[in-house]
Amino acid sequence: MPELPDVETVARRLRRTVAGRHITGVRVLSPATIHSPHPRRFIRELSGRTVHMVDRRGKYLLIRLSGARTLIVHLRMTGDFELVPHAAPVHPHTRVILRFGRADLRFTDQRRFGHMDLAPSEAEFGPVAELGLEPLGASFTPGRWRALLRGRRGTIKSLLLRQDLIAGIGNIYADEILWQARLHPARPAHRMRQAEVGRLYRSIRRVLRRAVTHLSRYGRPVGRFLEVRGERDIACPRCGHPIAVARIAGRTTYYCPNCQR
Ligand SMILES: [Zn+2]
């Protein structure tokens, strides 16, 4: 499931390859991928526009177009974009094709959970407008983070996953962030000490920043815990204690019971 670093990497790739280019044609192979407007209108409204910029908000891709339209894409489980020559054979998992002259930007999605919406802007698109703080953005400050956590009775893990509080973190990076911050995922947020809140803040920024850099440079994620997470009978990369697996915040959670308190 793509999380912030994965989506940011796709946004940067699209920015390099299609920003400034003109959409000369649109094909919708899977109408279910288009949530709004109706696929016929989607095709009509998208054709002929120019890609101004490609941004990201939380786990959403924002493809900003000429004429005050934004194509909002959620990759969900298996969504991805590939830029190929227009003549290249169409892969069976291709759902939508944006044609840029002699090149195609093809949206492939094996599991079909990914979706697209065309809206005037993200401010007028509820799911994006309601997102919480952007963890790599300038508005995510230690003070706002502290204020956000004040009085919250949920576990720290469940708060990290709440897109309306902080946007873009999913199950895997939440585990990495908590491991790096040496915090137990089931701790109630309001019981954290001041120093721990600061440690968590720094861990969020560091983990996501490093993941973005590594993914866009080397094409694979990075994280000491991430690299072992999910395997059987693993030892904590920091202290050697066996890693525990539990269901926390409704999600399979990996953590070290010895050095995460
Ligand atoms: Zn440990």
UniProtKB/TrEMBL annotation:
Keywords linked to the UniProt accession: DNA damage, DNA repair, DNA-binding, Glycosidase, Hydrolase, Lyase, Metal-binding, Multifunctional enzyme, Zinc, Zinc-finger
Domain Formamidopyrimidine-DNA glycosylase catalytic as annotated: residue spans: 2-114
Pfam families for the chain: Fapy_DNA_glyco (PF01149), H2TH (PF06831), zf-FPG_IleRS (PF06827)
A GO molecular function held by the record: 8-oxo-7,8-dihydroguanine DNA N-glycosylase activity
InterPro entries membership: DNA_glyclase_Znf_dom_DNA_BS, FPG_cat, FPG_Glyclase, FPG_N, H2TH_FPG, Ribosomal_uS13-like_H2TH, Znf_DNA_glyclase/AP_lyase, Znf_FPG/IleRS
GO biological process entries: base-excision repair
Residue stretches making up the FPG-type domain: 227-261
Catalytic activity: 2'-deoxyribonucleotide-(2'-deoxyribose 5'-phosphate)-2'-deoxyribonucleotide-DNA = a 3'-end 2'-deoxyribonucleotide-(2,3-dehydro-2,3-deoxyribose 5'-phosphate)-DNA + a 5'-end 5'-phospho-2'-deoxyribonucleoside-DNA + H(+); Hydrolysis of DNA containing ring-opened 7-methylguanine residues, releasing 2,6-diamino-4-hydroxy-5-(N-methyl)formamidopyrimidine
UniProt-listed Enzyme Commission number(s): 3.2.2.23, 4.2.99.18
Essential cofactor(s): Zn(2+)
SMART domains in the record: Fapy_DNA_glyco (SM00898), H2TH (SM01232)
PROSITE patterns hit by this protein: FPG_CAT, ZF_FPG_1, ZF_FPG_2
SUBUNIT field: Monomer.
Family statement: Belongs to the FPG family.
Name of the molecule in the record: Bifunctional DNA-formamidopyrimidine glycosylase/DNA-(Apurinic or apyrimidinic site) lyase
